[in-house]
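**User:** Once you have settled down, spend some time on the protein underneath, comparing sequence with structure tokens, and judge whether sequence predicts the tokens.
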Amino acid sequence: MPLIIIIALLVGLRYFEVWRFAELSWWWIVGLMAVAFIWFEFIEKMLGLDKKKEHDVDEQRRKDRIKQAFNKRK
């Protein structure tokens, strides 16, 4: 997510020609966009980072069910 924010800031700064960013080549920004695309479409899925949050939620549900089952017996 920070990469997307950096890209958005660079686009804004370059477009409005702020300070040294006025001289920044658009190719640097396009290159960062390509890196972000590759990261989110391929690398993140290969590393399993896109499923980690869902897995944590499922694990918490499982723990809650176990806790609830043992509390009913008492």
